[in-house]
Amino acid sequence: MSHRPPLIALALLLTLGLLVAPMSSPPVAASTDAAPVDLRVEDAPDPLGIDVAQPRLSWRLESQHPGVRQSAYQIQVAGSRSALLDGDADVWDPGTVESGASAHIAYVGPDLEPATRYHWRVRIRDAGGAWTEWSSPSWWETGLLDDADWQGAAWIGNPDSPQDPGVPEADHPAAPRFRYEFDSGGPVEQARLYLSGLGYSVAHINGERVGSAVLDPGQTDYSDTAFYVSHDVTALVAEGANAIGVELGRGFYGISTENAWNWNTAPWWSDPELRALLVITHPDGTTSTVASGEDWTTSLEGPTRYDEVFVGETYDARSEQPGWSTPGYDGAAHWDRAETTPGPGGELRARPHEPVRVAETITPVEITEPEPGVYVFDLGVQIAGWARLSVEGDAGTEVSLRYGERLGDDGLVSIPQYDDFHTVPRAQTDLYTLGDRAGPQTWEPSYTYKGFRFVEVRGLPSAPTTGTLQGRWTHNDFASIGHFDSGSELLNTIRGNTRRALLNNHQHIPTDTPVYEKAGWTGDAQLTATTASYEFDMSRFHRKYLDDILDSQLPSGELPTIVPTSGWSYEGAPGWPAVHGPTPEWDIALFTMALNLYEMEGDVRVLERYYDAMKLYFSWVDARVDEDGLYPYGLGDWVAPGGEPPEGPVLSATAHVHLMAGQLTEIAQILDRPDDEAFYRDRADQIGADFNRAFLDEEAGLYRTPGVDEYRQTSNILPLAFGLVPDEHVEAVVDNLVADIRDRGDRLNTGVIGTRYLLPVLSHHGRIDVAYAVATQTEEPSWGYWVELGNTSLQEHWQADTRSLNHHFFGSIGHWMYADLAGITPAEPGYATVRFKPHLPQDLDRAEAATETVRGQAASSWRRDGDGDLEQEVVVPPNATGEVHVPLLGQDADEVAAPPEAEFVEERAGYAVYTVGSGAWRFVVD
């Protein structure tokens, strides 16, 4: 027998705190050694500046013993830590609540005050009736809850910077700076800065940068929503004289260059604007405030001379203003008065999701000189972000940095097709002019990001070293919660490339490429939502993006294909006709992403929030059904091999509208809306009947679009995935799908829509060996082909000459690795029951995975030894039940060596099914 995989030992430590008793030992009763840990509010630990009226509280359990269950809980909330520790819950104490729930418990105490810290703790009662000790105290702090809380802080801008929206500009005013000097008003006990600087902002107090976030506060549909950020600046504010300085970048708020998505004519278009409130609390409890207004001063003479998200930045170090954010700045007399501005039209809300940060600094692996004095730095991996330049030379020397994902035949950076989307003075290029400071000068941009592996540098005063330029990798600062490893190094590499593609394309919204578009295509988001949820803590980000979708919905119910949008892709809007009107495979993001959150976290509120929007959309799209009961709209199976799919969009679109009806049926049942449930069930049945009448060839056992004789894999994958195939035809449809894959040499022939479901469909219909052969294929089209090409991310198209090397919508393979190869899925919402059902390819000897759930870590591992014996191990998080499916490998269930505590349920479809409690469990099949 093989030894225990390292994964399980690690999972035991992380999930249970300590190793449990030997798996063959008698069961241990639930004990009060269990403890609530990892307290969170709105899915964040100790969040600063939230504006949710009834925030949701969550915790997880930790224990040395298996079988831990929560039967009740008690929460206490107090106005101070000392009161809480004294048992004085002077804000809220609902008493004992009989419930096993430990995630998203709504606070329903007295109305929360703005800018106030609340302290809380929780204890739980176990299944045996014993209470745990109280958890360690945690806290949350409210932000500004309504406009009055801003205490007169106005939106301000620079009076000399306004332009006309929609008028293309090769240049525009420099990044405006704002400053204000103030007295602290006494000793400083606490200081909070509430700041919204649109599009992006960097703040300083007394010459020190505020926070570590970049590209803040994040992209939205500014006509509906704009974000502010709360900062703890206690350590930066001194007693006595102080100064605050804020510089603003344009971001997506005021793009000036022409582009395919009409950002330069967005309804919210504006030059940069700022709103800020600084609140200083003194030891006696009194406060002093500093609010943005016309008494602030502003300058356009700073060093950031130009910034455009699709272009780059121009920085002239000769224009630096030393001391501009410190008190007593000697250049203050030359600054102008700021003017009040209207501000964005949308509601100002606290930023709800993780900020973008610099996650890693990357040293180049190679420097080449393809032309005299022109140097190309190769980072070795595709990233999103920018470069940090360190250079020494004469003042006035200009250095240019051009970023790209590939090199041309001449060894220089190549950005093909960029001009198809943008009218810009230069593509992905920063310009830095040296100042007159002695010694090395170090600079990096602040308001733009690029997708790249290579940086072409011109104008260096001397030959570079690897210290001259480094890559700065940026993305939303998600917690990494996933682990996957297998006996296939190719699969492991594909998984790593998928993670990188996901991170590169999460920059406040789920983008489609950090080079060309930076657009939040809803299809891309929904295709990889589950993959991302296994790999990263996506809870806050996905909720934020669902709110973006809500903001984008028209009163008619229509949804655009990119979110946020300037108005692009609505019916009648200028732009690409293919995405005007319904695009069901993209629009379904509203449905699938909300349901994914519910299934992963058990949060009913997320369904309640978006249910009416789903109904509205469905009514809108259902009114566009044709006389045959079909929906001939949208993009269909996008970027399939060979170009535009011959079957068109009608089969794919109709299948997705059917799926929406089924999802609405499910949600209506969860929300106890029986009339809605009956209505949507009827619609699903009718759409399904119309679908089969139009596309099912019963005699041939396959689905096809009339007029298209070529077998199309996606046309058959979707009916299987969405439960549209009549039972008597399932086997034939699966057989024909497998035959086509085999005839193609174990190759797929799918675009992003079919690829999302291909491997799960094969696995769930007993064809895991075919799925594995496709997943590990190395000839075009395949993920392995990209690895053979040397890629470190995922491509936009299967073929080598694709436009983008940094897409994520083919990253749906990651879901298959976790859910099917390792077999981890939620059998009940929120992983109340964790299903472990691995599918074992004949050519793979091991696989393991783990992911953090709302209850703790769930882990799965299996391996076969040289004799064909199978060892399967799982870890069930505390307060959960495990449903373990042990592959029988042709044996009977009585051949399974199972722990005596595991309850045998039945033999089902080649598996022996067991029920287990929390803890670590090991099964062996000889």
From TrEMBL:
Catalytic activity: Hydrolysis of terminal non-reducing alpha-L-rhamnose residues in alpha-L-rhamnosides
Xref: InterPro entries: 6-hairpin_glycosidase_sf, 6hp_glycosidase-like_sf, Alpha_rhamnosid, Bac_rhamnosid6H, Bac_rhamnosid_C, Bac_rhamnosid_N, FN3_sf, Ig-like_fold
E.C. number: 3.2.1.40
Domain Alpha-L-rhamnosidase six-hairpin glycosidase span(s) in chain numbering: 481-820
GO molecular function term, any single one: hydrolase activity
Pfam families to which the protein is assigned, alphabetical: Bac_rhamnosid, Bac_rhamnosid6H, Bac_rhamnosid_C, Bac_rhamnosid_N, Ig_Rha78A_N
Signal peptide: 1-29
Superkingdom, natural source: Bacteria
Protein keywords: Hydrolase, Signal
Keyword Signal: yes
The Alpha-L-rhamnosidase C-terminal domain, residue ranges: 823-890
Protein known as: alpha-L-rhamnosidase
